Amino acid sequence: MSTAPARLGTSWLAGAGNRVVVGGTSTTWRDLPELDLPPAPLAVLAHDARYALAAARHHAVHGGELLLSTPGRVDEAMRAELREAGFTVTDLGADAGSVGTSGGAGAAGAVTPAGFRPVEHDRLWLLTSGSTGRPKRVGHTLASLTTVRGEQPARTWLCPYAPGTYAWWQVVTLSLTQPGQDLVVVEPEQLDDWPALAATHGVDAASGTPTFWRRTLHRDPAGLARVPLRQLTLGGEPVDQAILDRLREVFPTARISWIYASSEVGAAIVVHDGRAGFPAEWLDRAAPGRPTLGVRDGELVITSPHHGTGLAGPVHTGDRAQLVGDRVLITGRLDSDEINVGGSKVSAGGVRDVLTAHPWVAWARVTGRRAPLLGHMVVAEVVLTTAPQPDAPTEPTAADEAALVRWCAERLPDYAVPRRIRVLTEIPVKETLKSDV
Q1: Angstrom distance (rounded) from CA 418 to CA 404
Q2: Is residue 264 domain-resident?
Q3: Which terms in the Gene Ontology molecular function aspect does this entry carry (predicted)?
Q4: Please, what is the angle between helix 210-219 and helix 241-250, to 10°?
C-alpha cells in the first residue's frame, strides 16, 4: 500500500488498523481492496459499501478530485451533467461487473467526460439531498469533513447511511482518522435487521435519522434494546422531544445527541442535553472555530467554519426555526412546512410533533391538501405503535381516526387540526434514511 504523505495533516490514515465490517465480513481499512481508478476528476458510483469505503481510502492516500455516491442517487440526467462538468463517471461494485483493483483491467463502466479541465486537487464533492429540487454539488476536502479531531473513547460505530452523503462522510472520516473507532456498515438489504448485525459485532455507538430510529423502535424494539449502545446520534431531519424520550426509555444511561448538519454548512449544531431544539442563548453568539447561529424571518441562518466551498459567511439554510421558551426548535423546510388554511398559517412540523407525542403514534407526516373555500386543509399519515408505551391511554385501533383528531384538538387551534388521518402499516424510508425528502 502507498505510504504517501498524510492528506489530513496527521499520521497517514491513523485509523488504518481499525476494524471495518461490511456485509457481515470483518476486515480493516488497511486490507480493503486497492482500486485502479481512472484519472481525476472522478465520479465513483458505488454499488456496494466495500468499494465505497475503498474509494474513500484511495482518496485519503492519493488525493485527486472525487465525487462519491450510490447509483440510486444519480439518474441519467445527473450522469450527463457530471460528464459535462469534466468528471469520468465510473461504476464500482458487484452489480457493476468486474471491479478495477491494482493489477486489474481498470474500473468497470467508466465513461469519458465531455471535456477536460484542471483537477481541483484534494477536492471532495458531495451531492445534496435534493429536498429543494435537483441535487447540487457542494465542494469539501477531507479536512473540512473531519470535524471530530480530539481524542475519542474507543467505539464501534454503526453506519447505515448511503455512501457519499455528508452523514456517511462524518462517520467514515472519524474511523479513518481516529484509532479505536471501528465501523460496522449496514447495507440496504440489512436495514430491517440491523440490530442483530450490531449486537453480533459489538456496536456501541450508532448514528441515524429520526426516521431510522422510529422505524427500528416500531419494527424491533426488543432487538434494539439488546444492542449495548453508549452513544446514540440523530440528525438529517427535525428532531422532536418524543423520539428523544422514547430512545431514553430504551437506553437510560447512554448519551443521546442530535446534530444539525448539511453539505452546505457542515456539522453546525450539536446538542447532548436530551431536549429538542437548542438553547436560545446560543443565538448570535460568536466564538472562534464555532458556527454562529441566527434566526432571520423564521429561517435558520448559519455562519460555519465547516462550510462547503464558496459558502463562507451567513448561509440561509431554508429550514424554519422558532423560538419557544428558552429553546429554538427546527421544524422543517420553509417551502413545505407552512400550510395556509383560510389565511391562517400552520406549521406542518408543529402538528407532526403533536401527533408523535401521542404514545400510540410511532411516526407521522403532515401535509396540506387543497380544499374549497379554505384553500388548504391539514391532513396526516401515521403509523401506530404495536405495543403499549408507559402510561399509555386506551389503545386506539387502526381505524380510530377520531381519537387522534381529539388529541390534536386539545393541543392545537381548530384550523391546525388534521381533517383526515390515514393509517399506514410501515414507516416509509428512502435511501437517505428520511421519509419526507
Answers
A1: 9
A2: no
A3: medium-chain fatty acid-CoA ligase activity
A4: 50
Q: Which three cell numbers stand for residue 331?
A: 421544524
Which of 203, 227, 259 finishes a domain? 203
112: CATH: 3.40.50
Q: Quickly tell me which residue has 476536502 as its cell.
A: 141
Q: What is the pTM of this model?
A: 0.88
- Structural domain harbouring 16: 1-203
Pairing state between β 327-333 and 315-324: antiparallel
The answer to whether residues 330 and 307 touch, using CB atoms and an 8 Å cutoff, is no
pLDDT, mean of each 10-residue run, the chain (437 residues): 41 83 94 91 94 94 94 93 93 63 47 74 88 81 86 94 95 94 94 95 97 95 97 95 96 97 94 97 93 96 94 94 95 89 93 93 94 90 71 51 92 96 90 78
CA nearest neighbour of 332 among 359, 368, 362: 368
CA dist 145 and 125 (Å) reads 11
Count of residues making up the chain: 437
Tracing cell 430504551 back to the chain, one arrives at 250
Is there a single domain that holds both residue 49 and residue 193?
Answer: yes
